[in-house]
Amino acid sequence: MAQPFVPLRVLQGSVYMQAVARPCVCLLCCASQRTCHIRPEASPPWSRDVSLVLSLSGTAHCIGTTWEHVLRLMRMAQEEDDMLALCHALSGLVISARKHLDLGANADEVMDITQEAVSIKAYHTLRVLFSCWPIKNKGKVAEQVLVIIGHLFFLIAPSKLKNQVNQLIRWLMMISPNVTPFLISQASRCLCQLVDSLALSGCGGVNLESQLENIMLMLFKQLSIKVNTSDPYSVQNSLLVLRTFSVLTKLYNDQMVFLIRKTLESKDPDMVVSALQVLMDLFHEVPQSEKLKNEVMHSTIVMVQEDLKPVRKALLSFIEMLGRHNYLALPQSSAILDYIVKLSESDSSVSKGQEPCTSPCQVSLPRLVTIMCEPNNVLAFVPLSRTVVEMALKAQSQGQAPYLTSFHLTPTQFVTPQNLLTSLMMLSQKPYREKDIGVSSLKLLLALHPITSLHPIINSDVGQLWMQEIPKMVQFLDEHTEKTLIQEKWEKWLLKFSSRSLMAINDDKWLEHLIRVILGKITYFSEAEEKTFLYKLFGFTLWTSSDKKLVQMMLTSLLQTTHESPTEREGIAEALSIVSMRHLKVVLDHLQVYCAVLTDRDSSYILQMPQEHQQREWGLVCGTIYLSYSRIISASKVSVYHHVDAILTSIPRHYYNCIVDKDKNLKLAYLDALTVLTNILSSHPMAFKFEFPHKSDIVTFMVELIKEEPLTSISSPIRQKAMNIITDFRMLRPLIEVEEKTELLRTCFKSVLCLPPTEVLQKEEFDSMEAQTSVNVLEDTLQALRRLMEALIVEMPTRTQHCLELLDTWMNSQKENERERAMWCTTRILGFIAKMKDLDKKIEFTRLGRLVRLLAMRCQDPVDNICFLSSQAVYNLYCILLRQKRMENFTCHPTPSSGSHFGLACPPPSAPPMIQRSERVGLGVFVSDLGRKKEGLWEEEGKSGVYSANVFYNSTFEIAKAFAEYFTEIQVTNLVLTAIECLTDSRAKVSLAAAQLMSAVLKERGKDVMKIEEVVEGILERLNSQLEPNTKEETLQAMCWLAGSNTHTVVPMLLHRPLPWDRINLNVWKAFGTLRESTISVLLLLISILEKPHPGEEALETALQPVAVACALCEMLSGSLSQEAIQELYPRLLLAVLYHLLWVIEQNAPPKMVVYSREGNLGSKSKPFDPTSCALEVVKLVILAAAYDGVVTYANHHRCWDLLSSPRFYYLGIMELTSGIVKNCEPAILHRILNLVRNLMYSPDNHWKVLARAFYAQLLWHRSVAQTLGQDFLGNLVKWIKESNLIMKEVGLRGISNLALHPQQSESLKSLVPFLRNFLKSEVRVTVQAVKSLRNIICHGKGMDAKVVFCNISKQLRPLINDVRARVPRPVGSSLGWG
């Protein structure tokens, strides 16, 4: 039956509690038990029977309503069970409210109550608990109330909470004494929560400050209670007390320090010990001001003077802590040191097996060593060390090991042997820092031997080493002072001493502990010198280990240390380099694995850092890695270079696969790190002996970085650093290819020269410092570009002209700043070349006229500073030319003291400061055998003019005069065309002068002439006129210079003129053979035409160019030519002509075709030539021009020309001609021919093959050829005779026959006899050559073997005597000895 509805306001008192309150409380209780931490045994019995119907997720929407009802119930609750049930419900409400308030702005939307209302209800709840509930009786209700109140503190408004502080403190002080551990811990937690909640407001308030002394008293009493480690509430209470002290110290630092000091100076030992514990716990949080130090030292001295025995142990620990914070270095520490010495004297020796500090009145040796070895106790070390040494020596005199006890088993109390050794090494590092600290450290080390407490028996090796070395080291220090000591030498001695000691100890476990101690010291010390020494000590220590796993583990630990400062990064690198001297592969492999930090997103710790720190950390790691590689390369010998290419392989990947965002700073950090590596790599001569295939990848990568830089600004030195890295790689093999260098220079020029002017860069920056920085970066970038250009010139000097030509775009730019920078580059390049020692051997200006024209044009530039730079460049170029001419007594001096540079006045005021500063650097002093000095300037021998940069400044005429009329291209062209027009002047002197001028200009500037076709046609047209003989000769000379400078343009034009040529064209070709320069140039082109594969059997008219070449050679070689030039090209020219001859005789030329006609003598007709006779004539002329008339005579006597004219017997003609060459030419010529033909013997072109093999076979007639080393003559010949082609068989047998003439070949030839017998029944020519070969083998063979061979083949030769083939019997008879 349904219950009737009863309004709540009707129910009163106990009726209300029975009807509504208790069931509601039960429900709240059940829900709250899920979230609160109240002990379940405190739950009221009647609440356990209620079902869990209220879910935790729904409580947030009814917190306000429920709390309102709970408050009403709290005011009416009388029984303890009801109060406990309400505590459960209230705890759940408070915790739920705190949880949802932590959500922030959305808390009001989740709960049905605002944050302000929560604060009010929390305050009301606190008031109800204090006014209505019995919380002073220390019962179960009080325990639960402590839990609830701790949460309420965080919900109550700080202003209201501060008003309740006094009451809360009094209540907590009242319930603290004589209670259970749980209640004590809850009271401590409540106090801690009160202080925490007040600290969140930023200020504890006046009430809390006034209660500090009471709070301190309560906390010290709780702290004095001995902690029971088995009781979690006891441990928790201690931690909460210390946390409360920590929070209060942050709020009231001065007051707390004062109260703690006051307690320290009290007479209560328990309170003093508690105060010492608190002060030691808070010491790192308190600002270490001078005032604090003085106050703490005063309190410590008071405790020392009081010398309460129960306090001694804690006081000694406190003094140890003071030592770690450099307090014992203060002047007033002497009283404390005396106290320590006094305590140590009471225990000057420790009996064997006795535990240290058995009496609180004693300071044992380990504790004393621990105090004095603190890094900050430097001032205390020397006086304490005397006491320690006395104690140690006394122990030794009693037969006890002074440090070899169980002290090492308590490393948390006493310094470990490893820590002691490291500390003493560090103190010895600067031996004169404090009095005799170095000597004291060494003496202490010797007195405490054996320092390794893990060895129960004194290690004899260590003992002998220390007894030998330490006295020497002490004596060394006694003989020196701080001024005379060489620190680097002393540190090397110390490190070597430590390494030898560790090698003697030979214990990897002991070594591991030592290394970890060193790592700890590295993180502790901040001075650069000390950290650097520790890193070296780490390296030498790990170097002694033979355990690979230990090395790997310690390397991991080292690389995980901080590398924020340059000292740390350099220290890590130095340590790795030292370890690598013994464990190179391990170190390199470990570094390679560590590199994954840069690229592996899954394992890198960098991505776990805040994003704003990731890029910087990546750069630091990268710097550490590359610096380590560089130090390893410096420290290691040849072995490391086998791994360098693998290192270079990973460098681009580190950047491309970078796990953080790439920006300017990251690029700079990466390039800075890489620069360190490349600097070291390029400075080691050993590096140039190895190949680094991945060098090109680095260069390409740097070029890409340069391309990425904007052309509108220069906000960073990325360009500069990338170019410096490329410069470092300049001479490492393999060298950069020409095409790559061209692209590299073009990219760098564009990236630097196209930058805005300096004035624009300065205006773009609002800050004057940033503006100056941009200017400085630009200057440094230009210098980097200069170094790069110089490096490339040194690497490939023959490409200097090309390097300068790449600047043309900017030299001719419309922008002044681009022209100025390009001219600056040109000036620096030429200045660098002028100072090169082996300039004449490497630098070649193949287009010198073009360069002079460009510089001369810039000497007329509107910008005065460009004119100045150009005049400097011209003079640098002039000096280069003078040096290349190898003239005598030429010396260029530095800038005169008057401020002029080689006679040039100072730069005009308009010159930018950067240019002025850079260009006042002279060429230095370089000596050549070139000229003589005249009034501070320099003149060239044979010239009347005196040249200097001052003379060239703004004077194109002087430049042209100095360089033999070098003008711009337009000026040269116009000059030549004007001179051509003047050739037909009726005045002989005028026409001659015009011809001479044209000849001189074309001689010096022929390459710069434009409109060459027009010039050639104009000259030929004037030659058809009736010129004066001298004029005609000079004009032909000019044509020679033009052809020599523009061979590939002039010669094809002349070759394409129709055959046969008239006398004018023939005179031009004849003139081409009169000058060595033009002769070689023209001949080279003609040879290249003849060497190309000729057309097949088409009409001869379609392939007249080779025929025209033969006609040209007929005329060139028939006159008075340069014999030296012909001899220089003789073998190649002869082969090319013979190749052409073979092609010609195979063509079906029209009958009576005339291609060339030579004038006869006076009164005789001209002689016509067809293509074949013309080619034969060229062969004769080539031989005669080379001054080998005997070859022609021999050929005439042996029907050579007839054979060469026959396609069938051409190869025989070649061999006969070769015989003449062998008889009449020097061996050097024969070897030159051999070197040419051996590359053609297997040519796919059959013409070349026949020609080359015929020459090759007959050249073997000469002994010097047959004895040429490294040639497989017999192997080649055997291959030919095995071919199916009869000509090849005959040529091969001819070669074997010639080879058999030399007795040295008999051993290798006798084995061929059975094989050669197979050719006796072959075609007649083959049979004849086979017989001749056998004859020569028999006749010229050595020893009895030849007779055996003769007997073996005589039966086979006899039938051939009656061979009907006419050519066979005679050589057979000769073979049989019949004459």
Automatic annotation (TrEMBL):
Residues 1274-1368 form the Maestro/Maestro-like HEAT-repeats domain. InterPro entries: ARM-like (IPR011989), ARM-type_fold (IPR016024), HEAT_Maestro (IPR055406), HEAT_MROH2B-like (IPR055408), Maestro-like_HEAT (IPR048465), Maestro_heat-like_prot (IPR045206). Transmembrane segments: none annotated. Keywords: Repeat. It comes from the Eukaryota. Residues 818-888, 941-1083 form the Maestro-like HEAT-repeats domain. This is Maestro heat-like repeat-containing protein family member 1.
